[in-house]
Amino acid sequence: MPISHRLWKTLLGLGASALLQCARKCLLAAEDFATHRYNIGMPKPSRTLIPKESRLTEQRNPASKNLDRITARQIVELMNREDRKVAIAVGREIPVIARAVDAIVAGIRKGGRLFYMGAGSSGRMAVLDAAECQPTFGTPPQLVQALIAGGGRAITQAVEGAEDDVRRAERELRMRKLNGNDVVVGVTASGTTPYVLAALKYARGRRATTVAITSNRGTPVTRMANIVIAAEVGPEVLTGSTRMKAGTAQKMVLNMLSTAVMARLGHVYENLMIDVVLTNEKVAKRALRILAEASGKSVSAAEHALRAAGHNMRVALVMLKLGVEAREARRRLKETQGNLRRALRE
Predict the structure, then answer these.
(1) Looking at the annotation, which residues are catalytic?
(2) What sign for the dihedral angle of Cα 115, 130, 123, 192?
(3) Domain residue limits at 338
């Protein structure tokens, strides 16, 4: 719009500083007008835009709201207090954890396998537990398997979008020919991880037993599993960081599952790792101590028996306790289908 002659005369009559001040006011007015027009088109703030979070693991912990203002000593003391809640929460789940153990044992005795499925820190906990089964209990690598969203790379770094890849979850179980004797354990702190939900859905379709480990009841995963282990540890010290209390609860539950399952399957004698794989010097020395303690014989006698048994600890223990040769010890174990207690007539 053209400026009138009278306005020009007015502007020219102003001093330089007054003219500059006038220009600034005009610019501010223009900005205010533009902002007003933009805000008219924007939705008004509403509670419905940010729904209230029902998952406990995503809520804020009142005890740690000043986390960025307290000392190092106060931080670790706070974390220690919060961690004490984990064992209590897991303890409440003991009946269902025992049910899960029995279900896994039943499946394995029928020729099934145990699969852990998880994403992010939950998947890493699963990988850790599965990886320890073979060296600790001497089981074949295919018996206990952990599948993590994003594959092997996700063990050491975050893989973008991995936990949303539902097709991969189904594909990985299909490749392994999942069947009705297998058990699939979905590990998800939130209870909403798409990768885990897809795995459990596929497993149900194959009539495999399904187990969920979560820290949130009433979430989708609890409706997808035959057995639900929900150790509700409450909000994290660092909001939403489920590698903390929820992760600790997962580790405790996974320890219980694998250890109890292997004990029930006979991979433990008393409280000793009778099937430990002798992978290094430290473990080899441990094996001698196990045999000496279990048999009441000397470490030297244990070493001789282990060598004669071809480094088979079960055979060596039968030799030591019954005073028989390796051949007879193997025969007794074969007759009892590897049941060490029965071979020892205990």
Answers:
(1) 132, 163
(2) positive
(3) 281-343
